[in-house]
Amino acid sequence: MSHTRYAPARQRLQRSELAVPGTNPALFEKAAASDVDYVFLDLEDAVAPGDKEQARRNVIDGLRDIDWRGLGKTISVRINGIDTHYMYRDVVDVVEQAGEHLDTILIPKVGVAADVYMVDAMVTQIEEATGLDVSDGGIGIEALIETTLGMANVESIATSSRRLEAMHFGVADYAASCRARTTNIGGLNPDYPGDQWHQALSRMLVACRAYGIRPIDGPFGDFNDPDGYLDGARRAAALGYEGKWAIHPSQIELANQVFSPPADEVDRAHRILAALEEAAVEGRGAAQLEGRMIDAASARMAANVVAQAAAIDGK
After folding, report:
1. What Rg value do the Cα atoms of the chain yield, rounded?
2. What pLDDT does residue 261 have?
3. Of 42, 94, 283, 303, which sits most exposed with the smallest number of CB within 10 A?
């Protein structure tokens, strides 16, 4: 078995991720003007079957008419699942007509690696046929893990395509797939002694980190419960997640807050790196800082914090 690292061609800031229905173009400009890092225009769950074609046209116009990148946004489209007859036209029409304005495609309900391969192959053919600029690696792919099948195959999905940049945990459909008893999308059931989503979040995170992919937490349904949202975001951040969905604009700042390292943490990271650099000059592999031993592992953790802070400052 190959041990090739499938590192994504690009790293993106993805602390907050706003879902915007493709049926409501009036929200596109508001999303672009918000403080969110990442927007996905939705053609799937937020769109009724009779509105799919109009939503697709709205999304294509929105990609063309709004300078998402100039406003500091990563812009994505969530297509319909490959088990629907809408999916192929989503990919063909959006990429052919607005591919130069699109950063990534979000694939829902990814169950096996072949699901990603199918979209990858389609995008590759369209890029070649239309002459899209692929000097930066082309359009990226992100996978939504929201079924038990997807979670059972999460490691192979993580290595399915060099376009794959991120995996997202879709807790709502995952709960349904598990037949779990839930009281709120992304919330905790008081009958469970702890966090019933921890195992799934942890497993997906390990697959992401093993193969250089960003792990992103999914939605929290009750946007009138900011404390519940913050609790879920903090649990995900503690595990190593890079961001979380916002299904309402009020959740954007909460996500940005949780997934941004505090100033004192950034300062300490800089001091760790400086102390270890000084130790290396003196021929030592470890050092002490504030009464604690630090070493190469400390440097790697500190470098992550510094890089994240730099990405936020550069937004």
Report:
1. 20
2. 76
3. 283
